[in-house]
User: Fold these one by one.
Assistant:
Number 1:
Amino acid sequence: MRRLMALSALCGAAGVLVGAFGAHGLASPEAKGWAATAGQYLTGHAVAVLAAGALLRERAGPGPLLMLAGAVVFAAALAGLALGLPRWLGAVAPVGGVTMVAGWLLLARALWMTLRS
């Protein structure tokens, strides 16, 4: 869990950088929107994974890992679109979204099981 939390902190930093680049380095409103969304999801999920690690430690299960992996895939797809990479990357974003949802559901289960005992 320590490594995942350290990676999460790096993803938080990356989220801020993506958001800042979108706000100051991109001209297209559409690209700015993609970068802003990527930064928000990456930063928000980084904070959630840090909280899960602090609260549940090893009992968190695979949920936080899926949350962070999904956020990275989702944000990378949107950032790629913002940078002008091929539009088919837009089809990758939902994979990240589904992975984030699965992570949240597994985290909810871990919390439920921990609070029940």
Number 2:
Amino acid sequence: MPIISIDAGGDSEAALYAACYPDNDGINGGQYTFVLTVDDTGFSKNLLATQNDAQVTLTLTNMGTKPHGFEIECTSVAPAYPDLPAGCPTMACFPSNSTITPLAPGASATITFDTPTPDGIIYPFKSGGPDDSAVPGLNDGQFSLM
């Protein structure tokens, strides 16, 4: 199944995005800042929302007793683009620099990244810490692109 990631870039990629993923609300871009904390039970916010093709600055502080991080998973574009033209990727991903590897307790990290082009989609996010897969609050975040 083809996957699209904004890491690739280039003019041909931009043309593919425009042909495959027309903007659903006519608005894109902008700058967004999020300050999140994470502890051993969950994130301070479980819903993050921005426009597509926007720049995000995200600061994560680990207030827990174990390592916790931040990663946004790939997702299907089918809910927002049910009539996707042939040859268009069916999955979309955030860029690799949108991930924060697990931080030690008390540590913070700030990252800046661009959101993908396909909008009208909810991308799941989670902690990615070594013991976090069994903790519901560390696996139920939603990053919504409007």
Number 3:
Amino acid sequence: MATSDDERFEPFDVVVVPFPYADRLAERRRPALIISNRRLALYGLVWLAMITSADNERWPSDVPVADLELSGLPASSVVRPPKIACIEPSRIDRHIGRLDRAAARRVSQRLRGFLG
């Protein structure tokens, strides 16, 4: 079920969304990390970073999710900062958790590295 447009999400919340593939016209419901703040929400948008299984081939920029209980993730996972998507907040299915502070700091550093 989609969330209401007035529901607020914070940076580093873990949510479930239809995340678009970069290499084909398809989407898959998966966990993602909110990486934008409320200033972007004024435009009716939210930026997300992909969360994927830690079993997948590792990328140098991957950030491991240390606290699975806090994040709401069922299995060992990593945030993949190079894979971001821009969606409307109403497409967020549900909030499942939050990234721990240390991992959030590492994700922020990796994102800044791609912007600089």
